[in-house]
Design brief:
Length: 568
Amino acid sequence: MHVSSETVPSGPVRADWIGARSLFARLPAARALRRCPVAVAGRVVRIRFERSLPVEYIDEFLAPYLAAWGARLEVERSDYDPALPQVEKAADHDVRVLFVDWRLYRKFAPQAALAWIAERARIALASNARAPVLVNDWPRGPGDDDPWFAALNEHLAAVLPHIAGVTVLDLSSVRAEIGGDFFDGRNDAVSNFPFSSAAAVAIARHLGLDLFPSLLGERIKGIVVDLDDTLWRGALGEDGPSGIVVGPAHQRLHRKLRDLQERGILLSICSRNEAEDVRAFFAARPDIGLRLGDFASVQVNWMPKADNLLAVARDLNVDPSSLLFIDDNPAELSKALGMIPGLRVLLADPGGEETASALAHYPGLWSARADQAASIRTADVRANREREQLKLHATDQRSYLAALRMEVTLHDGNVAHVGRVHDLSNKTNQFNLALKRLSPVQAQESFGQGNMAMTVSLKDALSDSGVVGAILARVDGTRAVIAEVLFSCRVLGRDVETLALMRFLRWLEERGVERVRFEVAEGQRNHPARDWLKRFVPGEPEGPVAILKKAVEQACVGHPAAIVEEHR
């Protein structure tokens, strides 16, 4: 695997994506991983380990995995101490890992051990609210009969994910994935490190390819797949629907793609084929684990694939660099990379096995939980094409909006939306006014005392878009600071953000706020948010609430959307 030292215009230094499939798909031997190059430029990721286990046997393998997504590793380790006292120390780190030898705590009841580690995690978060915290469980497998570890893992899984900013480092799942000998008594006897070399590599892979990139904002929004020799074996135009081979590995790949879709990843197709042949194939072959309707954008034609990838990005209203393109032809991948800086690519295995395995660990795809709005999102993107048709046939913008029959619901301090605010902050690039990239803890604090949080839901005649935006402010007497304005790119062009700001300013005025300031950051892609604010505040982003409210109200005159307010 080659690591470039050049910085591409739209993002960090990345590995040679075309040749990196085996790094994602297979678990290498320790000696082979040590020979992999590490990043010499790009984003620096600072990891702080608080430990009662020797983590050196794992962190030596992290750098090659971080290089796969263009990151350089800096590691800081605490002293060995079962009490983990150094969590109270404020540190400039991006992630903190509490790496615990749970064998040392068996004198406690499992629930007491959980209470202790939960408190340690909360202290770690308090010392650096922007940095997520990881806490490991104890790796169990078939035949393990120790009830203490079983109870501990159960308590950890039940409680820690509900602490904003804390994620379980699930060693039991890592053990189940790799099979074989996870523990090594010889390592334990020599260095108190109880795991095997293969286990150390697998833990490093889970940290370096799954957890760290996803927790730190390395997020893929959409997967674009070729069809022939990618989703199946064979060429549809030559072999016909009956001649296409869909084997067990292809079906595993289809299940993996469906799982990723359920976790919020949009699926699309980019294929050189006849559109009618593709429709007929999906209708005729029930052994395909995906329906054509599962794909938010379908580009099946004879155009250059780079052009079709840009069409997918327009359909999804995302930057092309947030897409992963999977194709069996390395020449097509190279052309796409040359035309679209920052694009992620994966060389497909025609048999399907390595593609499915690589997707299990491709940086930016991992998620701890299913996305309840995933099905809404795909349907909403497809509905956008109908909205475009409505817009084309409307006489003006106002008649177009009226035809949509929009209903905008404004939620005042709905804490059930904290997770969605965190997602919007970290996934939204175009309409993200301050680019704060809120951590889970910071998102939760935005709903706390001294703050005002509005979340915005939208539905219209074509689809329910769910929670699509948020406005967050800190309020101090007669002054307020609007710390963030976030809206999904799916809803831009309908002035939902302006309607929301109008009501938000009324809420501020009702609470006695007289003056407001907006926090604004200039990023590569957030000019839509900055241009929107300049419509109302052309100079310094600060002024009297009454004057700003009047300007925003004027912009909303005649908007046909129905507005519903839900207050606590």
